[in-house]
């Protein structure tokens, strides 16, 4: 499907204010329903993981689906340890620099960095989002 295609329910043209309000209401209702479904899915997955561990189940066959328990690992690396243990050339090769926005803001507030320099170095990308909290 063309990623630029607009689905009929997404078109905004031809709506008066009342129509736009109704459309916004319908979209928000869909978001609430999706959030509730996601919350229910997370609870079901957590319960499944408990039962799978208790019964030592790694895979379940369902009509049209296979559910598997995937076990993996996430790694967190201490930059301080690497900086201490590696030659500088190797350390520079395996790490990258990134700006800490909070620290940059603090440096501007303290007068250590000119606001004009911070603005020139910063790209701001606006976005919109809808947050739904399910209770």
Would you write up a description of this structure?
- There is one protein chain.
- A hairpin with a 2-residue loop joins β1 and β2.
- The chain starts with 16 loop residues before the first helix and ends in a 14-residue tail after the last helix.
- A two-stranded antiparallel sheet has the order 1-2.
- 51% of the residues lie in helices and 6% in strands.
- The chain is flat, with a radius of gyration of 25 Å.
- It is mostly helical and 135 residues long.
- The chain has 2 domains: 61 residues, no CATH class; 43 residues, no CATH class.
Topology overview:
Layout: H1 17-55, E1 59-62, E2 65-68, H2 79-85, H3 88-94, H4 101-109, H5 115-121
Antiparallel strand pairs: 1-2
Short characterization:
The chain is mainly alpha-helical and 135 residues long.
Taking the alpha carbons of the first and last residues, their distance comes to: 36 Å
- Count of domains: 2
Number-wise, the strands total 2
Strand order of the main beta sheet, please? 1-2
H/E element order: HEEHHHH
Helix segment count? 5
How much of the residues is beta strand, in percent? 5-15%
- Look at the helices and sheets and give the structural class: mainly alpha
